[in-house]
Specification:
With about 400 residues, this protein is of the alpha/beta class. Helices cover about 15% and strands about 30% of the residues. The chain contains seven helices and 28 strands. The protein has a six-stranded mixed sheet, with no helix packed on it. The longest helix has 19 residues. The chain starts with 9 loop residues before the first helix and ends with a strand.
Length: about 400
């Protein structure tokens, strides 16, 4: 048996991952940038909205002219016009004057607030009674309230979501500088595997990992190429890995990552040009037989063949790597909910356990029910809604213990 190297902590392996540099930047059309990470901090090129605009239908006024106005003592003002939508008012307000305005309309010069139409009464003769005191700025979006020129609005490495896309559109940005999508090559190994379209003979199973790992990677914007199946043949595996390194930023090999006689991934990774082994074995469950290596700025990652172990390892190590390569600068908050563990779960001190749980809504919040099953079963992950972490310094979690359940997307 080939021995594992010393099991490394999750945090130690993540430090290696954080050493990989981000991929180069490229310019893409705005509508193609969603889900990518912006390469450079983006600052507002002008004020937004660029003019003082009303947030209600009503009357533009000077605050001093409606000071003290109320139902029994209204302010009587002369209505001198209507503010055009999408245009600039061609008049200004003097003392004792007001103008009709709709939501989104530009305030005329001299106005500093708006009285809602609900607090107005027609008095005849071009006069309007206003029965509401307003302070300067009431019911108004100021010219630089959404954004001030030169203000940093999107930090480098920020994931461009719908709201960032909308902000860029508000300034007319047609192209955005984003980090290139990571190119991932996925290889599944094992004599027992048959392709998706194949019919397994006794002792064989379909290749699950290629498809589940590809879906996970595509979910964070990576470009994925599924190389296909490779038998337990080190020469063939090495040829496929070397070929994949010609175009991929990350080569993922599923299976063959343990220390058995038919586990060749470590030897293959260290035999490619520039191949350096960083970790063989992680203090994690499930997923102990994990491999991390690099060849220059390209990453080589070996995942266990058991599907649950492979997917847990991919979530813990592969996804942070892809985020790093695609420009993430800082740790981001994972979607999670507080919950109460329904029953005790044992763990081994010194490793980090990721416990699959099903969430139900109880009268006092969420209840996390552990989903038990061997790491070779995919159904346990399908049944799970979230993962609960048991840290290295614990020997398990107690029934009734409050935990944080990280949601599985």
């Amino acid at each position: 048996m080939k021995p594992f190297l010393t099991l490394q902590s999750v945090d130690g392996i993540l430090e290696y991952i954080n050493d990989f540099p981000a991929l180069a930047a490229e310019s893409v059309p705005l509508d193609a940038a969603a889900g990518r990470r912006i390469a450079e901090a983006w600052r507002a090129p002008a004020d937004l909205p660029g003019f003082d605009r009303s947030t209600v239908d009503g009357y533009a006024v000077r605050a001093r002219d409606v000071f003290g106005a109320q139902e029994g003592s209204p302010a009587l003002l002369e209505c001198v016009g209507e503010c055009p939508m999408g245009g600039v008012p061609d008049f200004s307000l003097a003392e004792g004057q007001t103008a009709r305005i709709l939501t989104g309309g530009m305030l005329p010069e001299g106005a500093d607030c708006v009285v809602m139409v609900e607090y107005s009464r027609q008095a005849g003769g071009g006069l309007v009674e206003l029965i509401r005191t307003q302070a300067p700025g009431d019911n108004v979006l100021m010219h630089d309230e959404d954004a001030a020129q030169g203000e940093e609005l999107i930090p480098a490495g920020r994931l461009l979501r719908s709201q960032e896309t909308g902000l860029l559109a508000a300034f007319g940005e047609r192209e955005v500088r984003v980090h290139r999508a990571a190119r991932v090559a996925i290889i599944s190994t094992g004599d027992e595997l048959v392709p998706l379209e194949g019919t397994p003979a006794p002792g064989q199973v379909r290749d699950v990992n290629s498809h589940s790992l590809a879906a996970l990677c595509r979910g964070v914007g990576a470009d994925v190429r599924m190389v296909g199946l490779v038998r337990d043949d080190p020469a063939r595996l090495r040829a496929e890995v070397e070929d994949a390194l010609g175009s991929a930023d990350v080569v993922v090999v599923s299976g063959g990552s343990s220390a058995g006689m038919r586990d060749h991934t470590v030897d293959v990774f260290t035999s490619v040009e520039g191949g350096t082994l960083l970790a063989h074995g992680a203090a994690i469950s499930p997923g102990k037989p994990f491999i991390l290596a690099r060849a220059g700025d390209r990453c080589l990652m070996g995942l266990p063949g058991h599907v649950t172990s492979a997917l847990i390892c991919a979530r813990v190590f592969l996804l942070p790597l892809l985020h790093r390569l695609q420009g993430r600068k800082e740790e981001e908050i994972a979607p999670a909910v507080p919950a109460v563990l329904s029953r005790a779960v044992a763990s081994a001190q010194g490793r980090r356990d990721f416990i699959r749980v099903r969430l139900t809504k109880g009268p006092e919040g969420y209840v996390a029910e552990p989903v038990m099953g061997l790491s070779g079963l995919i159904s346990g992950l399908v049944a799970a809604d979230a993962l609960v972490l048991c840290p290295e310094n614990r020997e398990g979690l107690y029934a009734g213990e409050r935990v944080l359940a990280e949601l599985l997307d």
